[in-house]
Structures are given as C-alpha cells and as structure tokens.
Amino acid sequence: MTQEEMILQTEKFVFRELNGEASGHDWWHIYRVTKITKTIAQQENANLFICEMGALLHDIADEKLNSNEAEGIEKVREWLIHVNVDETSISSIIEIISTMSFKGGGGPPMKTLEGKIVQDADRLDAMGAIGIARTFAFSGAKNQIIHDPNIKPREHVTKEEYRTGKTTAINHFYEKLLKLKELMNTDYGKKLAETKHQYMEEYLEVFFKEWEGE
Ligand code: ADP
Ligand code: NI
Prior knowledge:
Strand content: under 5%
Bound molecules: adenosine-5'-diphosphate, nickel (II) ion
Radius of gyration: 18 Å
Number of strands: 0
Structural class: mainly alpha
C-alpha cells in the first residue's frame, strides 16, 4: 500500500469511528485539524506522513470514546499494523497520540516536531471563529449557560474541576481559549494563533457591549 492509500484508508476508518460524535470531537474537527496540520507541516519542513496520520488519529484514543486510554492506543496500533505502516512510523505516530491525550494543560511537552505540529493544530481548532462555535456547542450539550457576571472564571483548576466544575461559556475563554496563544510550539502555529486570538478578543469586546445594551 502506498502512503497515500494508507492515509485514504485511515480517513475512512476515523470517519466510521467518529461520525456523529457530538462532544466536539466529530469528524469535521479531525478534518480541520488535519488541514491545519498539513499547512504548518509544510512551513516547518516536517515529515508530512507522520503529521497527517497523527492528526487523523489524534482523538481516536480519547477517554470519552474508549473504556480507558490504553485500550484506545491499542486500537490505533492495531489499525496501523493493519494498513502496513512501518514499525518506525508506528512508534512516531503512537508517541504523538499518547502524549497528546494528556488533558488539562498539565501534560508533558511534545517530543518531536511532528507532535508539536499536531498539538498546535488541535489547539488552533479551539480558537477563532470555529473555537467560539465549539465553545457554545459544548456548553449547550452540557447545559452550561452563556454568561453570568456573578460566576467568575476559575483561576487554577485541577483536571477534575476542569471537567466537572460549574462554569459558563464566556468563562471558558478566560479559563482556556485566551491562554492557548502562549502555548503554541511552532513559529507558524504562533503566527496563526495571533490572528485567531485577536478575533476572540474582538468578539468578547462586542459581546460585553451588547450585554450592557450598548
Ligand atoms: P480538547 O481536549 O481537544 O480541547 P475538549 O473535549 O476539552 O477537547 O473540548 C472540546 C471543545 O469544547 C473545545 O473547543 C473546547 O474549547 C470546548 N470546551 C471544553 N470544555 C469546555 C467548557 N467547560 N465550556 C465550554 N467549552 C468547552
Ligand atoms: Ni482534537
């Protein structure tokens, strides 16, 4: 199988696995993250195959889709063997996916350039116009309100609190989205994040004006 065919087969596999997932990890999230990954990978001269496969598979091992993370990672390994990806590439791809699945910002840094790129792409999809849409979609799904001036953003939240604590959609900007710009790994990722960050700041400015009837 050529690498091109491996990618096509993997796209179909991921589509089958994630189609209809409504928690923000749907197929179109993967589609967007893969596109941004390819753009950054070209700018940073990274290994395109590892980057693209890493992006396509980055959410398959998620704890929300598997009974545990190890099981999810095993599923990805089996898939890669099934489509005849070589051993070295399998290690690189698995390394990206297992490091990325640490949530809440407290995870270890990505080791390889390819990993840094996929992580940047995933974070970029939480920013800008798409990031805003995902935040409100997530909030609706969790019965979380849009905004309440009396509920303040949380400062230092543990992974547990981040997942279960009461907050609002607007607070999510302060708890996560506006911090992402500083977490970018690659130069090109930083550049893209700058524009998206700016857009979210402008959005919040208009939001608070409208909130006060201006
Ligand atoms: P990821 O680990 O890829 O960021 P999450 O499951 O944490 O995935 O989040 C999926 C989407 O929902 C992201 O766009 C994220 O910013 C948003 N989100 C996560 N937690 C909240 C929350 N408490 N309120 C609003 N949006 C959230
Ligand atoms: Ni993701």
